[in-house]
Design brief:
The protein is mainly α. The radius of gyration is 19 Å and the shape is globular. Strand 6 and strand 7 form a beta hairpin. It has one domain: P1 Nuclease. The strands form three sheets. Strands 5-7-6 form a three-stranded mixed sheet, with no helix packed on it. It binds zinc ion. Zinc ion (ZN) binds next to helix 4 and helix 7.
Length: about 325
């Protein structure tokens, strides 16, 4: 089906379903993984089952988030020896979930000054190499858990972008998008950290990032399970990725930053509250006003991205174990 037709079909399907509580963060990641498993070839499925032997089915896709919680002494993996060893071996694992590219870049390669060896793109590549047997940096089970989680994350546009702001007048912060203008702002850390510092309401979690992680997905799901919703939409979405398997993550990050740019369009930026307790002022929060119809438009984008994440997770595993 053509992309425009597919979007209409998905939008129609999604709008017909009432809301219930789901999130990209937990049930969302799990639904992506469940939908992905339905697309595995028999040989890939056999390998996946062998690598994940002993894993609780609902833990695989969220293990990396739970490991991050354990690092803060929270959640079910506190005291788990495998998790403790992982945290000690990879103290910067919390940066694996994202890459803060300026909204104006056209590709991951163009964002060279904003990428890093521990970002989501590089880590996906590393996990693939571990599962191919070309690297032993991660245990195979850890590599598979991390890969499944990060392919979900990289398809969340706010995980591949950051708004950089000129705060010369804190009452009127100005969003910058081109890499040259953003670089000095990055050095001063004058960014919204993947839309985490943008608040559309007064509550603690009224952040634009959380809107994408939780609220949009909540609006997608309903009486039908989120997994079923994604599975039903799979045939209608073109999820193919051109080129070599090891460069796919760069392509996905490029798609996500373009969607993020569109997701910032029409937002009005209000007053910026600065934190001045450290070295140089930092952006604590910027009040924003979302354009009319924002959630209805963007929930379809979120749904399409989750469907692509499911199909592409399966595509990677089928390519590794073909
Ligand atoms: Zn994550």
């Amino acid at each position: 089906m053509k992309a425009s037709k597919a979007r209409i079909a998905l939008a129609t399907m999604l709008c017909a379903i009432p809301a219930s509580a789901f999130s990209w963060a937990d049930e969302g990641h799990t639904a992506i993984w469940e939908a992905a498993q339905s697309l595995l070839t028999p040989q890939a499925k056999q390998q996946v089952d062998a690598v994940l032997a002993g894993d609780k089915p609902d833990m695989t896709a969220v293990w990396l988030d739970r490991a991050r919680d354990a690092g803060k002494n929270e959640g079910p993996l506190v005291g788990d020896q495998e998790t403790t060893d992982f945290i000690q071996a990879f103290p910067f694992h919390f940066t694996w979930h994202y890459v803060d590219m300026p909204l104006g870049v056209k590709s991951y390669a163009e964002a060279d000054e904003f990428t890093g060896r521990d970002d989501v793109v590089q880590q996906i590549k590393r996990c693939i190499e571990c599962l191919e047997g070309k690297s032993t940096k991660l245990h195979r089970r850890t590599a598979l858990r991390v890969l499944v989680h990060l392919i979900g994350d990289i398809h969340q546009p706010m995980h591949c972008s950051s708004g950089f702001f000129d705060i010369s007048d804190p009452l009127h912060p100005v969003l910058r998008t081109d890499p040259d203008s953003c670089l000095p702002l990055k050095k001063e850390k004058l960014e919204d950290r993947g839309a985490n510092q943008l608040f559309y309401g007064p509550e603690k979690y009224d952040q634009m990032h959380a809107l994408w992680d939780f609220e949009l997905v909540k609006r997608l799901a309903g009486l039908k399970s989120l997994t079923k919703l994604l599975q039903d939409a799979l045939p209608d979405i073109d999820s193919t990725t051109p080129g070599d398997l090891h460069a796919w993550a760069e392509h996905w990050a490029g798609e996500s930053v373009a969607l993020a740019k569109a997701a910032y369009t029409g937002i009005e930026f209000g007053a910026c509250t600065l934190n001045t307790t450290g070295k140089g002022p930092k952006i604590e929060r910027i009040e924003i006003k979302l354009p009319a119809g924002y959630i209805d438009r963007q929930k379809t984008v979120a749904g399409t991205q989750m469907v692509k994440a499911a199909a592409r997770t399966a595509a990677v595993l089928n390519a590794i174990w073909k």
